[in-house]
Design brief:
Elements lengths: L4 E5 L10 E8 L2 E8 L2 E6 L2 E4 L2 H20 L3 H9 L8 H7 L3 H11 L4 H17 L5 H16 L10
Antiparallel strand pairs: 1-2, 2-3, 3-4, 4-5
């Protein structure tokens, strides 16, 4: 018997302490909150926590990512996730995500980026920064953004720092 699972991925704006909560899940007619206990997804509802079977969850996860991450990165979302996380591209391929999932913290970060109102632009910025940091290991993220901000001020003037002056 094949279980039916549907996910609605939603991440809190700021990570919260405790078990990771990433939206809603529907599992064979039951509905509840999607909660990770370690790396394992669960449906949390009135009857408590129920583990979600890996095979059914994997299919639903890829479908949810195709929708959510697909709006930001298109069909290439798995490559974007690899760039962002520093993971091997094979580890973020759809078939691998379907079988093994994604690390919950990486999934939460992808969901957080994808649900921003400026998701495409912000995602491009974060992906470019990740690629830059991978290529220039001696540079820290703080230095990268300080230098980038300085370059924007030089190119656009102080208005680059203050959106009210556009």
């Amino acid at each position: 018997m094949t279980l039916l699972v549907r996910l609605e991925l939603v991440a809190p704006r700021i990570p919260e302490p405790g078990d990771l909560r990433l939206g809603r899940v529907w599992l064979d007619g039951r509905e509840g909150e999607l909660v990770y206990v370690g790396r394992e997804p669960h449906l949390e509802g009135p009857a408590g926590r129920v583990p979600i079977p890996r095979d059914a969850y994997g299919i639903a996860l890829v479908e949810a990512l195709d929708t959510l991450a697909g709006r930001v990165w298109g069909d290439d979302w798995s490559s974007a996730v690899a760039d962002l996380t520093g993971m091997n591209r094979r580890s973020t391929a759809r078939d691998r995500v379907r079988k093994q999932g994604l690390a919950p913290n990486a999934l939460a970060a992808v969901v957080r980026i994808a649900q921003r109102p400026d998701a495409r632009e912000f995602a491009a910025l974060v992906r470019a920064a990740a690629r830059y940091l991978d290529a220039n290991r001696a540079v820290g993220a703080a230095a990268l953004f300080t230098d980038a901000t300085g370059a924007l001020v030089e190119l656009r003037g102080l208005a680059a720092l203050d959106p009210a002056h556009r």
